[in-house]
């Protein structure tokens, strides 16, 4: 969907992804949402689990601060294809675009990103 799209304004297209950080005794997971026009991190969150509700909350919090994007791009991970996440995004009138690994190599959309104000206002629900 995004291959030939001319991205010209903020909030036209956001992208989100999850990465993990190995720690002694386990992992922590980091998710972030970036604006593909400005390449700024709009919002981020850490968790010790990768639940769909966590990903939904990230987008909900980013919308509360920055308004809605026209398009939200994700990969086809189980959190993003879940009803919790996808139904929330679509209920907001946002187009949900999902890449597969043949279209976008893993990690490419989180490449050279400048971070604006780091924002994490949502704690881990498992604490």
Description of the structure:
It is globular, with a radius of gyration of 14 Å. The model is unreliable at about 100-125 (pLDDT under 50). It has one domain (about 15-115): 2-Layer Sandwich (Nucleotidyltransferase, domain 5). It has a six-stranded mixed beta sheet with strand order 5-4-1-2-3-6. With about 130 residues, it is an alpha/beta fold. The chain has helices spanning about 50-65, 80, 85-90; strands at about 15-25, 25-35, 40-45, 70-75, 95-100, 115.
CATH class term? Alpha Beta
Tell me, what's the shape?
A: globular
In N-to-C order, the SSE pattern is: EEEHEHHEE
User: How many individual β-strands?
Assistant: 6
Helix content: 10-25%
Q: Output the number of helix runs.
A: 3
Largest sheet: 6 strands, mixed
* Portion in strands: 25-35%
- Structural class of the secondary structure composition? alpha/beta
Radius of gyration equals: 14 Å
Q: Can you say what the CATH homologous superfamily is? A: Ribonuclease H-like superfamily/Ribonuclease H
Mean pLDDT: 83
How do the strands of the widest beta sheet line up side by side? 5-4-1-2-3-6
Number of domains: 1
Question: Which fold name is given in CATH as the topology?
Answer: Nucleotidyltransferase, domain 5
CATH architecture type: 2-Layer Sandwich
Q: Runs with pLDDT <50, length 5+?
A: 102-127
């Amino acid at each position: 969907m995004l291959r030939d799209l001319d991205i010209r304004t903020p909030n036209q297209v956001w992208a989100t992804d999850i990465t993990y950080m190995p720690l002694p005794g386990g992992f922590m997971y980091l998710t972030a949402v970036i604006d593909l026009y400005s390449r700024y991190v709009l919002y981020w969150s850490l968790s010790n689990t990768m639940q769909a509700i966590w990903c939904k909350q990230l987008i909900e919090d980013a919308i509360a601060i920055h308004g809605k994007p026209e398009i939200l791009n994700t990969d086809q991970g189980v959190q993003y294809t879940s009803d919790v996440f996808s139904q929330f995004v679509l209920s907001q009138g946002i187009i949900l675009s999902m890449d597969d690994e043949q279209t976008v190599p893993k990690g490419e959309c989180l490449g050279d990103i400048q971070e604006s104000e780091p924002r994490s206002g949502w704690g881990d629900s498992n604490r």
